[in-house]
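User: Hey, quick favor. My workstation is busy. Could you predict this chain's structure for me?
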Amino acid sequence: MNLLRKIQKFLNWEPSPKPHITLNDELYAQFLPFRTPLILLQLCMIIGTLGYIVIEDYSLIDGLYQTGYTITSVGFGALKEGEFSAVGKLFTITLIIFGSALFTFVILVSVDVINQGHLKRIFKERKMLYRIARLKKHFVICHHNEYAIQVSKQLRENHIPFVVIDPRDDLEEIARRYKYPYYIKAEPHTETAMLKAHLSSAKGLITLSDSIADNIALIASVRLFEKEHRIPSAYYIISASESVEDISKLKKLGADTVVSPSKLTAQRITAMAARPDMENLLEQFLYKSDTPLDMEEVYVPKTSWMVLKKLKETHLRDIANVSIIGITKKDGKFMPMPKGDVLIMSESKLLVIGTQKGILYTKGLVKKQEKPEELKYV
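Assistant: No problem, here it is.
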């Protein structure tokens, strides 16, 4: 077994991951109507074979072959030379009539199953579930609306995978129109929907319902899903709230970030009115995927070599070409534009600005437990 895994790793081949829900039970249920025709077909073949063995003195293989092309109305006639006996002819006529009725029954059952459309829907959904099972660190967007359209557009531009969950019957058409690569038709707060969206491998969830009750139900369901499935790291939950008063309520229930569209709009208009020349700077700086600069918070673990070191002693500007423009302490207090003599404390967050490559390099440096080799040459 270990040898097989080594060969797979050497060839860079891994078996396709399976979804938590494969819909096999629903698929088997669609094939249940075919059970009766198959049983009747087997009985017909057995009775026909035994009949030719007894009546016409055929061998087992000859009797089976004669029965096969008789009930299918192929019309080859008697297998042996000469004609059937009178009893054999009556028996053959009975087989032909029964076989024709049986195949007509099978056709009617097939047409009925296909016309219902459930079989096609299940195959499409199974294919989608296997595609979603390959995702990692994706976001689950709950409820399709205007917010979901704009959020999905930004996620696509930044190459962040996402799954949209909504109970609408026309979700497939909506997904084609707004280019949702992955989607699930279900009630978002149910455990089945979360399993189908492969939430266990997701980075977080975004709930954008206009109803505060829907958002509350989703937040509670996701936090319960965390505990029941023993997810090692907590999900990052983003919620929308039409009312400013509900922001604190949603945060207390478990949301990490709550966005109020009315509050954001007011802040943006105020900023545009106060500083018209800075109108598009934030959008160009933060929201564009092709910008040369980026800004991100970098967490400092307890075991980092930077703990209790002065900011200037890290030489991040020299070795990673980034700048620290802010530090969020463990208690949540934010220190803007820290000086070089400021001590870096454990479990704080460094607000880093620089290129994406520089920020990624900085994350690697911060995680190291011992002083990196690069500092020997600075």
